[in-house]
TrEMBL record:
Reactions that this protein is recorded to catalyse: (S)-malate = fumarate + H2O
Pathway(s) this gene product operates in, as recorded in its UniProt entry: Carbohydrate metabolism; tricarboxylic acid cycle; (S)-malate from fumarate: step 1/1
Name by which UniProt lists this protein: Fumarate hydratase class I
Function text: Catalyzes the reversible hydration of fumarate to (S)-malate.
Summary of subunit composition and partner proteins: Homodimer.
MF-aspect GO terms: 4 iron, 4 sulfur cluster binding; fumarate hydratase activity; metal ion binding
Matches recorded under PANTHER family: FUMARATE HYDRATASE CLASS I, AEROBIC, FUMARATE HYDRATASE-RELATED
Length: 547
């Protein structure tokens, strides 16, 4: 009989090396209980820690993440578009760090993963107190409410607080209460995938090819460069997905680096193989190049002999997470970078010196399309003038009108449409953080809308389906890609005015008219149906005219 030995699947092999800052708060005491020293934690401590965490991660990034972004500018193998995106992301981080505009307009679903030690005493209503801190952050700061509550099977309403949150509380450890706080926007959250495979996949080339192929299908709509996590195995499918999310936040970096006895471990060699292959895809940091991923985490877990779950998850350009802890010494939160401006270069790299093609949006749509027709996919643009903003709910309402025989609204016939939804507008600002949303969610509307004379120039982030390229070829349309990630930068520097056109009751999903200046974009799909991201063509990495 094999001797009993308990081994946690995700047991850490190395101590936590995170740097923390102290949170000043009262409400903790040390109680004597027999030979034990019990750490008593009052509700306000949990509320304060959660508020501080979600304020920080909405505006600040980890220093290591910013170092990786800055390193792109010094890499001679990086494309000019890699460097352009990296520069915009650093500018965005610098603006967001001021604490007014959040780094991303999608301020995300609030997620807390926590482990409470056996010598930590609370009133037992921890999720409520943590939720109160989330509520205070989202209602008092310039963040966006994105949580939809079902009223019936087909009707929903925005909760107006960004609650409920996803809060997972585990009993583990001794005399500390440990936390991981995450704000997960829909772009990267929608790119978590589970594949139920079998042991037939467990050969070096087959497994590597499978992972790289599935990673490439994530595309650019979740705002690369990514921190990619891959989990191979797991006692259940849901365990694999949970581990992938934690690994994408670098929360499992301290795992052992070899297997045995039922433990999960990191495979550093396989991580390097996957990373190298992703850098050969040509997708790059959104518009072609090398930097599809900053790094890769590969976690190998034990599994049932008849099942091989494989989970993929990413953390995006808005790499929003922080650790926290409550110990006998006090309340602490991970120290994030408060001076990201130090990573900005004094001057732009030489290959970014060439100006973008200026597009005047304050003319007819036909003239704008004629100007775009003179340039190839991959061309970098600078947009100035009027855009109409409409996204999921507005598109659904307009489709109902078209289905009932009503005409396409003039605003979608006369102006380019920007798929986006802003965060709250700070006092004295024309706009809250206002980056693009994922274009693919509007793909099903494009053929009908373009046939009715609308959406002939679309602006958003990420790749589109082949049906969109076909519709653009048939109807003379264009899809322009904006950079996913620099929402604070766009609000601060590019968006000059916002007016509500229709459906004001939808809040951040209302139809808006905005005035922009030097708004950065790229031609992704042109009126000939050429698609920058199509697999059967090489991405164009420099500005150029169609031959």
């Amino acid at each position: 009989m094999t001797e009993f030995r308990y081994t946690p699947i995700l047991g850490a092999a190395e101590p936590d090396s995170t740097e923390y800052r102290r949170i000043d708060t009262s409400g903790m005491d040390i109680l004597g209980w027999g030979p034990r020293r019990i750490l008593s934690v009052e509700p306000n401590v949990l509320t304060t820690l959660a508020f501080e965490a979600f304020r920080d991660i909405s505006h600040l990034l980890r220093t290591k993440h910013l170092e990786q972004v800055a390193a792109i500018l010094d890499d001679p193998e990086a494309s000019s578009n890699d460097k352009f995106v990296a520069t915009e992301l650093l500018r965005n981080a610098n603006i967001a760090a001021a604490g007014v505009l959040p780094m991303c307009q999608d301020t995300g679903t609030a997620i807390i993963h926590a482990q409470r030690g056996r010598h930590v005493l609370t009133d037992g209503d921890d999720a409520r107190h943590l939720s109160r801190g989330i509520y205070e952050a989202y209602t008092h700061l310039n963040l966006r409410y994105s949580q939809m509550a079902p009223v019936s099977m087909f009707d929903e309403r925005n909760t107006g607080t960004n609650l409920p949150a996803q809060i997972e509380l585990h009993a583990e450890g001794d005399d500390s209460y440990d936390f991981l706080f995450m704000a997960k926007g829909c772009g990267s959250a929608n790119k978590s995938f589970l594949f139920q495979q079998t042991a037939a996949l467990l050969s070096p080339k087959t497994l590597l090819d499978f992972i790289v192929d599935k990673a490439s299908e994530i595309g650019t709509s979740a705002c690369p460069p990514y921190h990619l996590a891959v989990v191979i195995g797991g006692p259940t499918a849901e365990y694999a997905l949970r581990a992938a999310k934690l690994a994408s936040a670098h929360h499992l970096d301290n795992l052992a680096q070899h297997g045995g006895d039922g433990i999960g471990y990191r495979d550093l060699d396989f991580e390097e193989q996957v990373l190298n292959r992703t850098r050969q895809l040509g997708i790059g940091a959104q518009f072609g190049g090398k930097y599809f991923c900053h790094d890769v985490r590969v976690i190998r877990l034990p599994r049932h002999g008849g099942s091989l779950p494989i989970a993929l998850a990413v953390s995006c350009a808005a790499d929003r997470q922080a650790r926290g802890k409550i110990t006998h010494e006090g309340v602490f939160l991970e120290q994030l970078e408060r001076d990201p401006g130090r990573f900005l270069p004094d001057t732009l790299p030489d290959d970014l010196a060439e100006p973008a093609v200026a597009i005047d949006l304050n003319t007819t749509l036909d003239r704008i399309r004629a100007q775009l027709s003179g340039h190839s996919v991959g061309t970098r643009l600078s947009l100035t003038g009027t855009l109409v903003v409409a996204r999921d709910l507005a598109h659904a309402k307009i489709k109902v009108r078209l289905d009932e025989g009503e005409p396409m609204p003039d605003y979608l016939r006369d102006h380019p449409v920007y798929y986006a939804g802003p965060a709250k507008t700070p006092s004295g600002y024309p706009s809250g953080s206002f980056g693009p949303t994922t274009a693919g969610r509007m793909d099903s509307y494009v053929e009908q809308f373009q046939a009715a004379g609308g959406s002939l120039i679309m602006l958003a982030k990420g790749n589109r389906t082949p049906a969109v390229a076909r519709s653009c070829r048939v109807n003379g349309g264009f899809y322009l890609g904006s950079i996913g990630g620099p929402a604070a930068r766009l609000a601060h520097d590019c968006i000059k005015r916002i007016d509500v056109l229709e459906y004001g009751e939808l809040g951040m999903e209302a139809v808006l008219r905005i005035e922009v200046e030097n708004f950065p974009a790229f031609i992704v799909i042109d009126d000939q149906g050429n698609d920058f991201y199509a697999r059967d063509q090489q991405p164009l990495l420099t500005i150029g005219r169609r031959p």
